[in-house]
Design brief:
Layout lengths: L1 E5 L8 H5 L3 E5 L13 E2 L9 H8 L4 E2 L1 H8 L4 E5 L4 H14 L4 E5 L17 E5 L2 H4 L16 H4 L6 E4 L13 H8 L1 H4 L6 E5 L3 H7 L6 E5 L8 E4 L2 E5 L5 E6 L8 H16 L4 H10 L8 E6 L2 E5 L6 H8 L6 E6 L8 H10 E7 L3 H12 L8 E4 L3 H11 L5 E4 L12 H13 L2
Length: 443
C-alpha cells in the first residue's frame, strides 16, 4: 500500500482512479500513523525538513528521499548537474542547447521545467541529461541526511551522489528563510562536489569567495572560470572575448562579447561555465559559437519586454535576492528606474542600497519589504553628500509600473528587479513577471 499526502479538493475527483492500484490519498493532513507502515518516505523538496511530520519520521529512523534523487539513481544516461545561488537556469539551458546542437538527444530538467522521472523509460545510455539542482533538492543528495535510518535495503539510493561533470557556479546568501544558517545552505550546495570520484570534474567560479575556498580542496578536478584571472584548463575573458584555456593557458576564443545577446558580466560568467562543461562533454568550440550567436536567454531574466517612447522596459523578475538585483543594475550603463520589493528573505541590503543609489534615478518600492528597503536606502544615502535617487512607495505592481512610466526620460531603462521573493502577492516569480509584461504592453 502506497501513501500520498496531498491537499486540495481537486484531488477528490481522481482518487478513485488510483485506489485500484493500491494508492491511498490522505488529503489536508499529515497523520503520523502513516509512518507505521512506511519503508521509505519521498518528500517534495519544497517541504522544509523541520515540519512535525518529517521530524517524527527521522525520529523513527524512516529514510527520506526525493524523486530527483531517485531519478539520478535510475537514470541510464550521463548526467551533467548544475547548482549555484544564481545563473543556474541560464547555464543549464545553455549546456542543453550545446548538447542538442552536437546531435545528442538531450533531456533538461530538475529545478527547471518538468520533472524527468516520468521520462525514464524513454532515456537511453546514448542520451545526455542536464539537471539544475537547488539547495532544497541537494539536501537529499547527502548521505548524512539518513545517518542512523533503517535503510539497509535502500542503501545505494540513499548514498551520497555527485555528477561526473558538475558545476557549483557561485554561492551568495540565499534562502536563509528556509536554511537555518549560511553554513547549512553551503553544505546543501556541496552535494554536487562532495561525492565525486577522482576522475570526475567540477566547474567553479574563481571570482566568488565561497566557491574559490571550496574548490581549493579538489585540486586538478576543478575547472575554474573567471572574469578577472586565467587558470589552466579554465575559461576567461581574453581581449574582450570569452575564451577557453588549455593546460598551458593558451587561449581558444569562443565568441566576442559584442556578439553575445545576454546582458551583464554575470552572463559572461554563465557562458564560461557552460562552455567548460560542454568541452568536458566533448563539444567543439564551433558548435558552442553557433549556439551562442543565437541564444537570447530565458524569460524573466533581464528580458527586454518593450521599447516605448524611447524607454526600454526590462523584466528581471527572477531576481529574488539583493545580490541578483546588483547584477541586473550593473548590466546597464543608462539611467535606471528600478521597480523592487516583495517578501524579504532575511538577507542583507546594505551593499545593494549603495549600488541602487549610484545606478538608479528613481526607485519604486512595493510589497511586504517596501518600507524596510526604503529605510536601508535612506540610511545609506545619509552618507552621500548629494543623493539624487528618488524613492516612491506604492501598494502593488500596477501602481509601480504607472509611476515608472511617469518618471522616465528618453534613453532610460525601467527595470523590474525585485530583490525579493514574490509570495506576498504572487504564486511565483513567473506570475509576477507576467503581470509586469502585461502592464508594460498596456502603456
Amino acid at each position: 500500500m502506497a501513501n500520498c499526502s496531498v491537499s486540495g479538493g481537486i484531488f477528490n475527483k481522481i482518487t478513485n482512479c488510483f485506489e485500484a492500484d493500491g494508492i491511498r490519498f490522505i488529503l489536508g493532513e499529515h497523520p503520523t500513523r502513516l509512518l507505521d507502515e512506511v519503508d521509505i518516505l519521498f518528500v517534495s523538496p519544497g517541504v522544509p525538513l523541520n515540519i512535525p511530520f518529517l521530524r517524527e519520521a527521522r525520529a523513527r529512523r524512516v529514510p527520506l528521499c526525493t524523486e530527483t534523487r531517485l531519478f539520478c539513481y535510475l537514470c541510464p544516461a550521463p548526467i551533467i548537474a548544475i547548482t549555484g545561488s544564481s545563473g543556474k537556469s541560464t547555464t543549464t539551458t545553455l549546456v542543453g542547447e550545446f548538447l542538442k546542437a552536437a546531435g545528442y538527444k538531450t533531456w533538461v530538467g530538475g529545478n527547471i521545467g518538468q520533472p524527468l522521472i516520468g521520462h525514464l523509460a524513454k532515456i537511453t545510455p546514448q542520451d545526455r541529461v542536464v539537471l539544475e539542482l537547488s539547495s532544497f533538492q541537494l539536501e537529499y543528495f547527502h548521505s548524512r541526511l539518513n545517518r542512523g535510518a533503517s535503510a539497509s535495503k535502500f542503501a545505494p539510493l540513499l548514498a551520497g551522489w555527485s555528477p561526473t561533470i558538475g558545476a557549483l557556479l557561485n554561492i551568495t546568501p540565499n534562502h536563509l528563510d528556509r536554511h537555518s544558517s549560511m553554513r547549512t545552505y553551503v553544505r546543501a550546495k556541496r552535494a554536487v562536489t562532495d561525492f565525486q570520484k577522482p576522475d570526475d570534474v567540477i566547474i567553479m567560479s574563481l571570482d566568488n569567495d565561497v566557491t574559490r575556498t571550496i574548490g581549493r580542496q579538489f585540486g586538478d578536478r576543478v575547472r575554474w572560470f573567471s572574469i578577472e584571472a586565467e587558470r589552466p584548463k579554465g575559461a576567461c575573458l581574453y581581449q574582450d572575448q570569452i575564451a577557453l584555456l588549455d593546460e598551458n593557458k593558451s587561449s581558444q576564443p569562443i565568441i566576442h562579447r559584442q556578439e553575445v545577446k545576454l546582458l551583464g558580466v554575470h552572463n559572461a560568467s554563465n557562458i564560461m561555465a557552460a562552455s567548460l562543461m560542454a568541452r568536458e562533454a566533448g563539444i567543439s568550440i564551433e558548435t558552442m559559437r553557433t549556439v551562442l550567436r543565437r541564444f537570447t536567454g530565458l524569460s524573466y531574466r533581464l528580458e527586454l519586454v518593450r521599447e516605448h517612447e524611447q524607454v526600454s522596459y526590462y523584466n528581471d523578475s527572477i531576481a529574488t535576492t539583493p545580490e541578483r538585483m546588483i547584477m541586473a543594475l550593473r548590466a546597464f550603463d543608462r539611467p535606471i528606474v528600478l521597480i523592487a520589493g516583495g517578501r524579504d528573505k532575511h538577507l542583507s541590503w546594505e551593499e545593494t542600497a549603495r549600488v541602487i543609489i549610484h545606478k538608479a534615478t528613481h526607485v519604486i518600492l512595493f510589497g511586504e519589504a517596501r518600507d524596510m528597503i526604503a529605510q536601508v536606502i535612506t540610511k545609506t544615502g545619509q552618507d552621500i553628500i548629494i543623493m539624487q535617487t528618488q524613492l516612491h512607495l506604492c501598494n502593488n505592481l500596477t501602481e509601480a509600473v504607472a509611476i515608472a512610466s511617469k518618471s522616465v526620460a528618453p534613453g532610460d531603462v525601467v527595470l523590474l528587479s525585485p530583490g525579493c521573493a514574490s509570495y506576498d502577492t504572487f504564486s511565483d516569480f513567473m506570475e509576477r513577471g507576467d503581470q509586469f509584461n502585461q502592464l508594460v504592453a498596456e502603456l
